[in-house]
Each structure stands twice: as C-alpha cells, then as structure tokens.
Amino acid sequence: xxxxxxxxxxxxxxxxxxxxxxxxxxxxxxxxxxxxxxxxxxxxxxxxxxxxxxxxxxxxxxxxxxxxxxxxxxxxxxxxxxxxxxxxxxxxxxxxxxxxxxxxxxxxxxxxxxxxxxxxxxxxxxxxxxxxxxxxxxxxxxxxxxxxxxxxxxxxxxxxxxxxxxxxxxxxxxxxxxxxxxxxxxxxxxxxxxxxxxxxxxxxxxxxxxxxxxxxxxxxxxxxxxxxxxxxxxxxxxxxxxxxxxxxxxxxxxxxxxxxxxxxxxxxxxxxxxxxxxxxxxxxxxxxxxxxxxxxxxxxxxxxxxxxxxxxxxxxxxxxxxxxxxxxxxxxxxxxxxxxxxxxxxxxxxxxxxxxxxxxxxxxxxxxxxxxxxxxxxxxxxxxxxxxxxxxxxxxxxxxxxxxxxxxxxxxxxxxxxxxxxxxxxxxxxxxxxxx
Amino acid sequence: xxxxxxxxxxxxxxxxxxxxxxxxxxxxxxxxxxxxxxxxxxxxxxxxxxxxxxxxxxxxxxxxxxxxxxxxxxxxxxxxxxxxxxxxxxxxxxxxxxxxxxxxxxxxxxxxxxxxxxxxxxxxxxxxxxxxxxxxxxxxxxxxxxxxxxxxxxxxxxxxxxxxxxxxxxxxxxxxxxxxxxxxxxxxxxxxxxxxxxxxxxxxxxxxxxxxxxxxxxxxxxxxxxxxxxxxxxxxxxxxxxxxxxxxxxxxxxxxxxxxxxxxxxxxxxxxxxxxxxxxxxxxxxxxxxxxxxx
Lengths: 436, 295
What we know:
The complex is a heterodimer. Chain A is of the alpha/beta class.
C-alpha cells in the first residue's frame, strides 16, 4: 500500500518536472552561430516602429552569424512578464531597460550589465548628444544607450485658431492666464490634456514647473534630502500653479476623466487652442493629421514664470534602450549583444530611424535626412530648448503614484498644495530609494 | 480484508493525481501567500519578517478602506440587486406575463456574453468628456463645460460601475433562476391557483422555498465574485479618479505588480480570502436558519 502511494507520488512529481523542463529552451550554438534571446518593449506591427523593423532586418543582413530571437510585449504586460523572468532567473540576453526607476526591479537586483564599465569609451560617448549621458544607476552605472530622448513637455498650439482669436503664444504665465477668458468667450477650450491616467500631469507639467522654479541642483538635493525638501517653495508653488490653472478654467472640462487620445482628438478637431503633451506625439500627428493642420501646429514650452531659475526649458528623460544581461558578462554572447546595441544606436541605426521620423541621440547631420513636417518641427524644438529632468523618472514609483493621486484630488477640489507637499515629503523621507 | 485494501488502493490511485494537482496549484500558493504576508520584499529579495506589520498597515490605509467599501457596494448590488432582479425577470418570463418571451430572454442574457473590457470601453465611449452622451447634453443645454460629474465625486463615483455591473450580471442569475423555475411542476401552480392563492402567496410559499438552494448558491457566487471584482473596474476607470473607484483586487494588483511589495500584496490577498470565507459562512448560517423555518 505504502509502496504504491510512494510510487504514485514519484511518478506525479516526475511528470511535473518533465512538463516544466519542456518549457525551457536552450539557445543552441551547434550551427556555429551566436544565438541571442531578446525581450523588447516594442510593437513591431505599429507603424511607429517601422524604423525598428528596418534596423532588425539590416542587422540580420550585416551580421548573419548573430541570430536574435526576439519576443515583443508592450505596456504593463511587458513589465509583468519581465518581472517573472527576473524572479525565475530566466533573463533574456538583450532586453529593454529604463535609465530611470521604471525597471529598477532589474537594475537594482543586479541583473543588467553595467555597459559603462564594460564597453563605453569616451570616444563612443562623444558620438552622442550630451543629454544622452544623464544619470542612470545611482552609482554611476549605465544600463543602456538611449536611442532617442523622451521629451516629456511640449505646449502645442493651433496657430490658425490663435490668429482667428487675435492672440499669439504668450510670453509669460500671467499672459496665458489672461487668454482664458478670450478663448472661452469665443467658444473654445484653452488647453487640452488627458489626465485620466494621473501620471500625465506629473510627467508633462509638474516636472517642468518644478525644474523651472527649483532648477536641477535644488531638485537633486530635495530628492536625496540633502538640505532641501519637497515642502520648499519650488515644489509647493508648482502645485499651486496646477491648482490655479484648473480653477481658472485653463483645462477643458473633465480633464481628469479624459484619456490622452481623447485630449489629442479634442485638439485635432479644433475645439481647443493648446495641447499639453509629450514630444513623441509628433509621430502620430505626422501619420494622422491633414497637412494644413500639421502646418498650423507649433511646438512651444510653458511660458516664463515669475521667479524661475531656468528659462525656456522643456523636460526630457533618457527613457529606455537595450541592455545586456549581467549573466553573460565576459562571453562572446555579450560581445555580440554589444555589437547589436552599437548597430541600433550608432551611425547605421540612427540613419535608418531618422528616415522613419525619429530624432536620434546619435549626432547625425539631420539636414541630410528628409524629415516629415512634425518631425522637422520636433528636431528644431530639441535644438532650441535645454532639457530639464522628468520628476517621475527620478523619484520612486510608489511615492509618485501617491503624489499623482493627490494632485488629481486637488484638481477635483479635494486637496491643498502645502498639505500634498508635506505628505509627499513624509513618504519620501521614509520610503524613497533616493533617501535610503 | 484483502478486497478492502485493494479497493482503498484503487480509490487512492484515482484520487492522488487530483490531490497532488490541488496541493500544487491551490494549497501550496495559499500557504506560501500566508507565509509571504508576514515578510517585507524589495526587488525579489526578502528584506525580513515583519510580523503583522503588513496587516496593520493595510487595515489603516485609507486607500484600502476606500477599496474595501467599494467592494462592499459591489457585493450589496450583487446580492440585493442582481439576485432579486434576476428572480423577478425570470418569474416574469416563466409566467409569460410579457409577449415574445424568447426575445426578451435573449436580450436580457446578451450583456453577460460580452467581454467586460468591451462593455467598459462601450460605456466609456458614451459617457467620457468627448463621448456621445456628453456631446449631446452639451448641444441641448448649450453648456460647453458639461461633463458627467458623478465620475468625479468621491462618494458616488462607483455608481456608474454599479449600474454597469447590475446591467451585465443580472442576466446570468435570471437564466439560473429560470432554469430552476421550469423544474417546478405546472400542476403545483394550478393547484395553488385553484385553492385561491394570490400571486404574492405563490411567490412566498412556493417559488422562494423551491429556489432557496439556488438563491444560496447564487449568493455565494455573487459574494465571491464581488470580492474579486477586477476586470470591469480596471478597464473602465483603473480605480480612478484618485482612488474613488478602486477595489481590493486593484489595490492588490498595484501593490504587488507595480510597487513590487510582494509581502504586502500577499497580506491583501489573505484579507480578501478571509473576508470571502467569512461572508460565505455567514450566508450559510442565514440559509440554514431560513431552511429550518420552512421545514
């Protein structure tokens, strides 16, 4: 009796092991080629990534001995699966990794290779714009080379509407506020912004305001708690401005119910004069808008603020790029992965991406590239404005999420800027990795 | 004796695979979750045991309290809304008080066949600030600032979700009740009518006792379903604005998969399990009492 139960138990457990083992696929090199497994946060079927597809094809042609087996995912699904891969130590050789805190579950767990130490030289660094080499790891590590900058603040204006209303883009915040009554009395909404997902106001507006009023030095001190805090004037005043903009009717009604796409549609349909959005929206504009509308859209930054310490700035983060698994450090696989990253970000990849409308971080003579209307505007926008930091790319996610909800509540009339700042400071001082 | 032993062996050999699967898939994760709920994690590394700290933090977190209250609202709508409404609709069709019963049966059943994500997108398209309903009201009232304000109200933001849940899930209960009503012999109704019983008496003394078992089963389904509500809320509002429409499963999801607080998330899941078991035990108690009354 006992023997048969034991036998059954063994058989059952063995079956489970066999089933589990069937799911593991070893990269074979019996054909003499280097096989790399990659996991990318990209949607290859989306026309926005046509450049990516062209690069992958170009790389496969140039390096036939390196085979890249790629799995694609996007949004939250990407992160969930990536976390599971990390937890089960089934890391891909090449993967999408963020310079900021978004993939801290990989970088802080030591699963990404510090390419700064292993591969980057001053010669390579000089081939890219200086903004490319912002802080990534807290100890100066570099996990990836960002192919392009994620510009997180742009004020788009519909110049046809502005002209019709007898207005021009305001030079100061006060002038902008004064335009509200003129725009509203003509039956338009001043500013469209979709804050249904509450990170929008943080990434696209608060970051800019805090950077303008506090500057990068103050911000890094506040983040680390070294002689500055989030109860200081720059942060509280930034929250007050958001509250003031809401109360004075700058945003279209239902700003906190509206998704990004809906806010964009409102602006494209000529119902609003301005749109606060990110720089990467230009790709969709190029694809979706008629040429006359594209011609009449201009790209600006938030007007001048009283007491600002940086002027005429936007915000940008290095966002994401491709990293290498720390587990293949020092192997031929790692060298092959680095070859791919250099191809993707360097001269060849940058030229291909530029043809598809991306403004690369690699120093490329864009005058030689035929760019679409909005991409040309975006390229000149980037050359005209210094870039500040993006708040939620620096601060820890849990605190930022709490702050975002508090800001949304404030915009709905249930919050006070000073109290929100105090609550956030309390949370950061106890929990944020910048302070621990 | 020998025969008994071989019978036992046969039973065990039949049960063991299922038992092993149950242990691996159900029991082990629950026990693991219980163990994890007393720990603090950071980036896949356990930082240490924290005892009941996670539980205290969860139960004193206003955001969790709000989420739990929202789950209670869903449960109330499910048990006191969907089930009675399901019985009423089923009885209406069963007694053929309306014409074209097959048509109504199909129309009422339709919402449950649609994916929750599709339902959420559909309702969002109608009531969002650029939706059809909002645009229509703006035109009619000549008020360009009109939006459906209830979505932004801390106290009542759940109402639209509750309405959708009522609309979507009542049909499932209706079908269950209708199938069970059809099992009551027609002669019982005829006899009651001949004895001069009024409709209310028929419902109270014949229909409800006959459906008692099903009502209990549906209540268990409604309670457990309400406490794990996720898909519709996630697709419709993602818990926003702020945390006004958050539910416990969303809170758990955010803590576990967005902030990687695995210990904290496990503690939330244990609280949900305990609440679910507690409430179902309570329903069993009420049902047993009601059963004794009718015996």
